[in-house]
Amino acid sequence: MAVVEVKNIKGEKVSEVELTDSIFNIPVKPSVLHEIVTMQLASRRSGTATVKNRSDVAGSSKKLFRQKGSGRARRGNIKSPLLRGGGVVFGPHNRSYAYKAPKKVRRLALKMALSSKLQENMLIVIDGFDLDQIKTKSVVAALETLKAEKPLIVTGTQNDTLELSSRNIPGVKVLQVEGLNVYDILNHRNLILLQPSIKEIEGRLAA
Q: Which of 4, 57, 98, 161 has the fewest CB atoms within 10 Å, i.e. the most exposed one?
């Protein structure tokens, strides 16, 4: 098992913790991470672009003029796609871009994302992030002490004080273990785990 230092928010070492190799130290395959990140981004697409087809356009269905004898092109009604204000052919409609990768692949990708942070020395474990009051300066000072750049902070339980104190800091995000995902781990440079969250992560991914 990998042994990692546990620090406090002052950057001082307070203890050590062992991380399960089957979760935090497995070979990383970029293709698996790419598949899951693509899935997550596809699920976030709104898919609200839509157009009016010929049948959706308001207007008369009467033929504009007779078929022959006028010397003009043959016309149907005013809703023809060939005319200005007419319907659109083969345009987009409301749809969902979401799709699901297999559960085993999603779990494996999450393990690989965690392992990549440990292997790159971008994983920081702290004993807690307790704040006396909602204050952004306190979080900024703690992150500077920990030398954490664009960090993702993972908590075991909801910490409203930490979330409210950090929400205005660019690049900083606070997540509970339930919301931990591959995209956010890879999108942030440092991963900060509060020590109680490690057991919950191992319990979630132990399979």
A: 98
Question: Could you give the CA distance from residue 205 to residue 106 in angstroms, rounded to a whole number?
Answer: 10
The residue range of the domain holding 170 is 2-46+99-205
pLDDT for residue 207 is more than 80: no
Q: Cα-atom radius of gyration of the chain, to the nearest Å?
A: 27
Per the structure, the count of domains in the chain is 2
Measured CA distances, 153 to 11, 34, 115 (Å)? 15, 22, 16
| Residue tagged 């898919």 (tokens) | 47
Strand, coil or helix: 111: helix
pTM of the model: 0.83
List the one residue out of 104, 109, 98, 84 whose CA is nearest residue 28: 109
Question: Residue 188, Cβ neighbours under 10 Å: how many?
Answer: 21
